[in-house]
Amino acid sequence: MPTPPRDPFALPGLYLLLCTGILDGNPGSRRIELDIGVAGALLTSLCVQGRLRVHHGGIAAVDTCPTGLAHVDRVLDRVGSSARVAGVGRWVENLAFHAYGDTLGHLVRSGTVDRTVRRSFGIRLEAYAPKRPAQYERLLADVRLAFFGYAPVSRTVTQVAALLRATGLHHVAFPGIPRRRLADWTALDGPLAEVHGAAELASIKTITGAVAEAVSGRLDTLRFCG
């Protein structure tokens, strides 16, 4: 089985790294999906690492000791200081505002992505590119294997794939394959179940379900207001 990432909280960064690549360096073009997807990734990684848990449809803190990662500790602090156990969907929505910027900043500071800035008609535009293209290509290849049910793949890779599916961005990783056909071909549930215990799998499904619902709700609101 592939070696898991040394950073136990790598999932949010890997999700955003993959999206930065498949969106041609312009992640701002799909901010709704990325905001909510990164929030879901943070919750998923913290639950899988035993820092949070899904309990009766809500998120509860288990261990709020700092991890040393600012974007992760912000989530731990917010959940740990909450006076009540809020629903998973509410946490996904509440965390989305900061999740994208915090995680993208971490990727830039850690040297995972390069940022370029330019101005067009007085508007500041930012673009991002994986600093190590080989790392991005390996991640993309592994995620594709997970989608089509091939094993072995790592736990983190299956989680990235599950978040791509939940946010509707999985079709971007498969250019040339129509969305309907891709939905018929994918077999992600097998690899997910193979590398996770029952409780972990239930938590991942609950969180990604909330992510999918939040993305759908925001996109519907945007279409209605537009």
Automatic annotation (TrEMBL):
Bilayer disposition of the protein: Peripheral membrane protein
Q: Which residues form a coiled coil?
A: none
Main location (coarse class):
Golgi
Output the Gene3D superfamilies linked to this UniProt entry.
Answer: yeast vps74-n-term truncation variant domain like (1.10.3630.10)
Query: Short name of one Pfam family for this protein?
Result: GPP34
Gene Ontology terms, cellular component aspect? cytoplasm; endomembrane system
- GO molecular function per UniProt: phosphatidylinositol-4-phosphate binding
Q: What are the UniProt keywords, alphabetically?
A: Golgi apparatus, Lipid-binding, Membrane
Q: Where in the cell is it found?
A: Golgi apparatus membrane
This chain's protein is named: GPP34 family phosphoprotein
Native species of this protein?
A: Streptomyces finlayi
